[in-house]
Amino acid sequence: MNLGLKGKSVLVLASSKGLGKATAYQFAAEGANVFISSRNKETLEKVKKDIQEGTGNKNVEYAVCDITNPDSIKQMISTIVETNGTIDVLINNAGGPPAGSFEDFDDVAWQQAFELNLLSFIRTIREVIPYMKKQGSGHIVNIASSSIKQPIDHLILSNTFRTGIVGLAKSLSQELAADNILINTIGPGKISTDRILQLNSKRADELNASMEKVKSDAEKQIPIGRYGTPEEFAKTVVFLCSGANTYITGQSLLVDGGMVKAL
């Protein structure tokens, strides 16, 4: 199937590793003009080279950006538009907030999680919409968490702000449909990334158990019986932002191997 992504201008946030990097790689493999972004220039340079060499696509660039800083977001979008002329696809992504329960966090922690995991998405969408409206098309995917369907124990910050992303996307799907801008939210389940290792390590410490035991117990709750790979997740993102998707908008989709039982 031709996904119609060759030459499309794509921005993937938080793409120096994990789900973001895998997503950027898949877009590059489809021939898109991809911008990756994170706060670390040296890491971005290495990832850019890795993607170019792995896909054979030389149209991969990077923009250093702190997505909690509105001026940094504006500069990133300006750089991409200067290079590619527009933005066809936006992949909103951010690292997860700290694990913990309600009494573990003060106002500072709540504000930081809000700015990282919700306000950053709002600000970036605000910056790209004028270009998408001008050309009469666009795709936006917000990467969230399986907590958009079922809260996860010990992740109250994530549970709160990830669901805010769903409300944002659902509302925008109504407002932007007339301009042929489609927006969806994807929640990863247990995907093999550094974030999952970090959460597993914290859980192992709490239970005084091994990392292997924590992973094995988690896999027993997944009908497919294993963690997903970043590549499997990324392919779903790419499909939703491709020419193959012309009618799916305002939806929340889990990539979780059947783990979440909520409807």
From TrEMBL:
Classification lineage: Bacteria, Bacillati, Bacillota, Bacilli, Bacillales
Domain of life according to the entry: Bacteria
Segments passing through the bilayer: none
Protein name: SDR family oxidoreductase
Organism: Virgibacillus byunsanensis
InterPro entries listed in its UniProt record: NAD(P)-bd_dom_sf, SDR, SDR_fam
Family: Belongs to the short-chain dehydrogenases/reductases (SDR) family.
